[in-house]
Amino acid sequence: MENKYLGMTPPMGWNTWNTFNWSINEELIKESADAMVSSGLKDAGYEYIVIDDCWSLRQRDENGYLGADPEKFPHGMKAVADYVHSKGLKFGMYSCDGTHTCAGYPGSFEHEFQDAATFASWGVDYLKYDNCYKPNHMDGEILYKRMSLALRNCGRDIMFSACNWGHDDVYHWIQGSGAHLFRSTGDIQDNWESIKTLAQSQLDKMPFSGPFCHNDIDMLVVGMHGESNDEWIGRLGGCTDEEYRTHFSLWAMMNSPLMIGCDIRNMSDATKETLMNPEVIAINQDIECRGPYIIPHYEKEVFTLVKPLSNGDLAIGMFNLGDQRTEYSLLFWDMGIPAAAGMGLEMHNCWTHGDEGVFTERYVGKVESHGCQILRAKLVKVR
User: Fold this and answer.
1) How much is the pTM?
2) Residue 336 shares a structural domain with residue 256
3) Active-site residue set
């Protein structure tokens, strides 16, 4: 690999699946690449345009090669990749470790090295690798290691996104596989209960995530508001902007990749404000990628995540996943700051972009139902 820093921090980009599913084509990809630049997403750090399932022909050719569906992509994938690259962005695609993809298109099982070479020849920079139709008696760990090896020897730097949904005890072998990120959950839906369930399922898995191998809690649904071609993803009518902000904050604090799933050609101002918050993105992209630790609350669905940052600051996320507004008292002792040390925390609010002041011993915050506070705290001497 030429880029020794590939995957050091969680990738940021956009994926077709959550909104468009099977309804993808060349025009959509080009328009989305244009929108990523014109909207400011590229300047905010988003760089990958990723095509998910349903891009290929239903059968390989006589030599076993994958081919793009000519009705959806009449100029072929190399031309699409070239267009994405011309915008200063990177291009991603999708395959599967099984005989077929989740939508029934050819998978890469026993074609791993051939497909990796094909993707490299098209100019692919990112591969999402799913887990459908894997033969029952085949070891998933071996299949992800196999594709990782193929990608690392294909002649091109390709980010490897392993998507096995947390199966096969993935936490204990994924780092050694060479994958840059690993899906640890089932598919997200555009509703609050899905966001809440996925986040809670990974609170005890943060030690398994780090630089070059990030725990992927699935793609963002921020800004979808129930708009999806797939009823299962979009049912229940989406979320409020407050819930989307909490969703984004959880994913950022937990070092999950930030892969947008809404239609970036048509984003509201609130969606743009959430997705492009530079202070929250900076927490997610901190170079050390430290997993946060949790400080529990007597209310089960209220908790604080604390993430040490590379410059000595602390990122503090106070979350209320419950249905009632709550007051939260955060004791500094629980973060290693005893009162006798003569130290306090200078608090900056990453959503209001205002300074909260200097506090000693504790910080008290009011957190709305389904809401959060994200603070960046600097250690200061108070006496």
Assistant:
1) 0.97
2) no
3) 130, 187
